[in-house]
Amino acid sequence: MRGQGNSIKENIIILVLLGLEAWSVLLNRYCTERIGCYITVGYMLLLIMYPLSKKQKAGISKREEYLTIFARWGVLNIAVGLLLYEYRMAEAPVIYLVRIGILIAAGGISLYIVLAVHRLFTRLAGKTSRKGMLIYSANDAEYLETDESLWNDILPETRVDRYYYSEGMPLDEFEKIIMEYDRIYILDLPSGIRNDILKICFRNQIPVYCLSKISDIMIQSAGNSKINDKPLFVCDKYRLDSGEELVKRGFDILFSAMTMLILAPLYALIAICIKLEDGGTVIYRQTRCTKDGREFCLYKFRSMIENAEPNGPRLSEAGDDRITHIGRFLRNTKLDELPQFYNILRGDMSVVGPRPERPELIREIVKKVPEFEFRQNVKAGLTGYAQVQGNYISTPLDKLKWDLMYIHQYSFGLDLKIIAMTPFVLFIRGNKEA
After folding, report:
1. Range of the domain at 426
2. Which residue among 117, 184, 193, 355 sits deepest, i.e. has the most Cβ atoms within 10 Å of its Cβ?
3. Which of 69, 98, 124 is the last residue of a domain?
4. Which positions ≥6 away from 60 have C-beta within 8 Å?
5. Cα 92 to chain center, whole Å?
6. Per-residue pLDDT for 425 more than 80?
7. How many domains are contained in the chain?
8. pLDDT at residue 10, as a whole number
9. What is the C-alpha separation between 74 and 69, in angstroms, rounded?
């Protein structure tokens, strides 16, 4: 089929290579027939589960796809490691945990090497001739000009031509143009035109990527129903139910308490560094909004000079001279956010959720994007879908779409996945401040 994404075979090869490379380290010492059987069964389950989950969520980004592989790899190694510890452990627990940590890190390095080699072979094989067409309308003209670099390289292996769709073009004539391309990208076209293009692509089996609308996200999580013989979509997932909130709150308390205890030495070191630089206060307090618009006091390590906003709130910009030396490091590594675990423990925030915004900033955004208030149907979070999928400079509308996807698709497993992905996105260029 045309434009098929990464095959399941490639993912299986990646996992098998990781398994052979990493577990040989421990199995050389602890291998028994019984334990080897457990490990074999574990990998078989993983190889079966991964393709199934891929089918449930088609079109996920490359970053999310491979971080998913690595997250499952880490969980599997910890599980098998505990199994080995239970049956054949002779070393001290701390030493053994270090060995498992090294093992997981080795798997991550191997994954990177496998992907790099695969990319090299793909290029050498000449698979760089894909052609894509980006279809846009008058609504997108300004968007393309202000964010041109985003659309120049939608996919590294695809050459993308732009096409302005003017209303009134005969559909059969437009279909001939579409047929010349391997994949289609649709921006903010009117719904009727977009539907026509989708049908053309479906009929000719051409992969199509649509810029999501708010209504698309709402329907995405809809259930199926009917009236007489008429199929219906039911959209009723607007916030978490009481059971989901109870599980989420229990996890928040446990996770934040353990994190604050483990990172206590780091808290102390950061506080000392801030004091040594300018002698000012260590903690910065700021009013933010959480669920249902409730205001609370958010805590951060101070990263700017004292009294950085004498004339009222002002967003940070590239090259902002108010940011201190230690503050720039804290912002780029997101370590300035660590005191928010106290907010989580208090119940102001959750570990995962939409990032809390200032009340005055929300009022400004709502004037342009009224739906921005929908993200306040759940508690604000330390990390979220918008943070791991988007970046620091994502527009409020794009952040809103990711946050709505999180609300409509919420599960405890999704929370764990976002937490696992968060450390990997901290050092991506787009997630850093200049």
Report:
1. 242-307+318-431
2. 184
3. 124
4. 54, 68
5. 36
6. no
7. 3
8. 55
9. 9
